[in-house]
Amino acid sequence: MRNSKVPGVTIERLPLYYRYVQRLDRYETNVVSSSELGKRVGIPAAQVRKDLSYFGEFGRRGVGYEVDSLRYHLEKILGLNKTWPMLLVGAGNLGRALVNYRGFLEQGLEIRAVFDNDPGKTGSNIVDGLKVEPLENLEKRITELSIKIGIIAVPVDSAQEVAVKLVELGINSIWNFAPTLLEVPSHIFLRNEDLSVGLMSLIYYSANYESGKECSHHIEKNSEDK
Amino acid sequence: MRNSKVPGVTIERLPLYYRYVQRLDRYETNVVSSSELGKRVGIPAAQVRKDLSYFGEFGRRGVGYEVDSLRYHLEKILGLNKTWPMLLVGAGNLGRALVNYRGFLEQGLEIRAVFDNDPGKTGSNIVDGLKVEPLENLEKRITELSIKIGIIAVPVDSAQEVAVKLVELGINSIWNFAPTLLEVPSHIFLRNEDLSVGLMSLIYYSANYESGKECSHHIEKNSEDK
DNA sequence: TAGATTGTTAATCGATTAACAATC
DNA sequence: TAGATTGTTAATCGATTAACAATC
Fold it and tell me: Are A108 and A182 in a shared domain?
């Protein structure tokens, strides 16, 4: 892998490519071109090729990309060929939805432990044997399950505190659903899945909507205005 | 407003500024500088000023931004001074979490009607008087509630079909949670809140994590992905 | 006046896109 | 060979950042 300095936006697009080739083989095409792939995920062909080229040469000139091979490589690049056990802090509505979401996501959301500081929630079964545990169990479970990824779905006021604790206990990546800025050491990977930003920008566009005017505004979370 | 060509990334940052000033007045500061504001939301001061300047001159040189005034302007720019009734299609786990999420979001997620094509779900109470309705009611409810924003939280296989129907019935903005590319006319605003992209990019970074190496990777979906 | 901070211009940086030689 | 398509370079585009005159 020669991913010297892969742009973050490229990393955001790899999942789209992966998802497409993953679904593709059910239908039957041995080979897919960058233009076909691009059309299906809404990205120009040149960009598809550029993105893939950061990681290697997966295609054949004059032919295209062999589907199985591309899927294999994307899986490996993204790390989806392995299992990444995760923990979730916050067993509220969103947290429970995420746990249940596991089944819907093709590549699997491996939530192995759920925590909440509300004694009223502790001990209750969330789904197939996954029980809500008190935060005191964090250290023990992180160690015994070798967890490196934490999901934060607690209210804003306790999010920072939870983040600090997770970092102390050796987590390296945090998926934060609390709509607030978390301060974590720079070596920790933090991804904010901030629905309130989504909601407000959605309202902005709807409020400024003028029928027929303007061109397409298809936004993929980060940016990618068009 | 002189928003001739406001970058999409700027729109994604306005909610962060808004959230900060919204929470700020509880504490007590009459004035906030771009550097203070920037520090609190993780964005350089120059960028804060540039972003705001797309919409007007809200600060005073040598002084800073008056908090109440800034909040007022951001509220107006984002359209949060009005109510934007929305509908939700898909009463699964994620859909129900969104309905319940309403209370947690300061600015309010105005879901006024919920639809599902599963007769087993129809009629059941989701929360305080909001009942799941069959899709046949879409047209009637969109008209009587003047709804312009639709939220799609159905499985991948039916998402496109739902999108087409919403567009036909006059929706202008779609918040799509189904992990798939929707084809909609270019005048429709489409925002993909794709958790599977989030999950996969999270795994990428965690899989490629090397302790201590590299610098900060704080991504706002959108980059954020960003 | 001296210090602070905005709004804006210009320079920098980085990502997207066009173009094309290499290859099947 | 003729047509297709990659991988990559170079040109373009657009966003970020530094710098500073204007202003309090």
Answer: yes
| Residue among A200, A210, A213, A224 with most chain B CBs within 10 A, to mutate | A200
- Tell me the CA–C1' distance in angstroms for A27 and D4: 23
Torsion on CA atoms A145, A149, A152, A157, rounded to nearest 10:
100
Q: Name the strand (E) or helix (H) holding A36.
A: helix A34-41
Residue A209 domain flag: no
> C5 C1' – B103 CA distance, angstroms?
38
The last residue of one of the domains, among B54, B78, B102, is: B78
Query: Within a domain: residue B177?
Result: yes
A50, A112: one domain: no
Q: How far is B24 from chain A (nearest CA, A)?
A: 13
B170 interfacial to chain A (CB closer than 8 Å): no
Per-10-residue mean pLDDT, chain B, length 226: 76 97 80 97 98 97 96 96 95 90 73 95 83 97 97 96 98 96 95 94 92 50 35
Supply the DSSP string of B164-198, one letter for each residue. Answer: HHHHHTT--EEEE-SSS-----TTSEEEE--HHHH
**Boundaries of domain holding A58:** 8-77
- For chain A, say whether B173 makes contact (Cβ under 8 Å): yes
